[in-house]
Design goal:
alpha/beta; 56% helix
């Protein structure tokens, strides 16, 4: 089931994805089923192909936008049904950095996987990230950077978050970020791409499956 929706996501066909989402809702399928078995399953295939160099970033973005369109229909229904989230994650691009394509993709994927997202956008000051993380009671913070200059602000951001609440986990990502760098600055994890961010988030929050 949902193979046609998976195909629409894989092909980046927003209109078809939206039509199929509405069709399945009309047939009485649960929103969380459509997300998990249709949208996320489709993006999982995208991830496999991306890692195998069978798909490239523009195509991944088209697939992600297809998922986003369907998610806009499904999110209010999930809220109405009071479906509990797997955890609350704050995500932001670090101060001085205006890039958000990667961050937006990660945010969308995590939301589709069942996490409650607090997206602070781009160019977010360190103190503001820490303030909001504590205020919103998040379990995990994702910090993104696309520049070698701005990535240096990640370490003081992690330190500030830990100073406020040592229980909050922090994962980092972005084009210039490596596993070695993430370990050096004390991050709890490194996500090289949006697909692996889901597995990492589940691992850091001890979520099975």
């Amino acid at each position: 089931m949902f193979e046609d929706l998976q195909k629409a996501v894989l092909e980046g066909n927003e209109e078809e994805g939206l039509n199929l989402t509405n069709k399945y809702l009309g047939e009485g399928k649960k929103p969380e089923e459509i997300i998990k078995e249709g949208l996320v399953a489709g993006m999982n295939v995208v991830g496999v192909r991306f890692k195998a160099y069978e798909m490239y970033l523009p195509e991944v973005i088209m697939s992600a936008n297809t998922m986003k369109k369907s998610m806009e229909v499904l999110k209010p229904l999930i809220a109405e049904a009071n479906i509990s989230s797997m955890g609350r994650i704050l995500i932001a691009t670090i101060e001085g950095d205006m890039h958000d394509i990667g961050k937006n993709l990660v945010s969308m994927m995590l939301e589709g996987a069942g996490f409650e997202m607090v997206d602070m956008g781009v160019d977010v000051p360190i103190v503001k990230i820490a303030d909001e993380a504590v205020k919103k009671g998040v379990q995990l913070v994702g910090i993104s950077a696309l520049l070698t200059t701005t990535m240096l602000a990640m370490e003081p951001a992690i330190m500030e978050i830990r100073r406020r609440d040592p229980k909050i986990k922090v994962m980092v990502g972005g084009a210039p970020i490596t596993r070695e760098f993430s370990e050096k600055i004390g991050a709890d994890g490194f996500a090289p791409d949006a697909l692996r961010a889901i597995d990492l988030a589940k691992s850091l929050l001890s979520i099975k499956g």
